[in-house]
Amino acid sequence: MCAADRRVTAATVADHVVPHKGDAVKFWHGELQSLCKHCHDSRKQRIERGGIDPGCDASGVPLDPTHHWRA
Question: pTM of the predicted model, to two decimals?
Answer without folding.
Answer: 0.64
